[in-house]
TrEMBL record:
It comes from Caulobacter ginsengisoli. Pfam families: OsmC. SUPFAM superfamilies: OsmC-like (SSF82784). InterPro entries: KH_dom-like_a/b, OsmC/Ohr_fam, OsmC/Ohrsf. This is Redox protein.
Length: 128
């Protein structure tokens, strides 16, 4: 189970995040009134998807004994009207055959964060 705590005070728009033993800041770019002190919320979303994908692919390749040397992932979030989309481009390095590459692309479609985003996640909000 994952958890995070977020605090924002009067500084536009920096939010302090604590998750596990890790602390970081999320902020908006200067163009949106922030100070760009950390990644924006959507940048964090893309980072979550990308890191989950990369970790899952390395774990899978290692279990199979495949020669995957590195994974690079470029991600982009777009919102046009009501339509929202994420594009994810995988670059797989290593002496992989086409069947292995295709399998890794298939696995990328079923990583935990990918499935959460594609399936939607119920969010319950309460006041403390």
């Amino acid at each position: 189970m994952a958890f995070a705590k977020v605090h924002i005070g009067l500084t536009n728009w920096a939010a302090d995040i604590v998750t596990g033993r890790h602390s970081l800041i999320s902020d908006e770019p200067a163009a949106l009134g922030g100070e760009d002190a950390g990644p924006s919320p959507f940048q964090l979303l893309l980072a979550s998807l990308g890191s989950c994908t990369a970790i899952t692919l390395r774990m899978y390749a290692e279990r199979k004994g495949w020669p995957l040397e590195a994974v690079d992932i470029d991600l982009h979030y777009r919102a046009e009207g009501e339509a929202r989309s994420i594009t994810r481009a995988l670059t797989l390095q290593g002496d992989l055959d086409e069947a292995q590459r295709a399998r890794l692309a298939d696995i990328a479609e079923r990583t935990p964060v990918t499935l959460a985003l594609k399936g939607g996640v119920a969010i319950t909000t309460t006041l403390a």
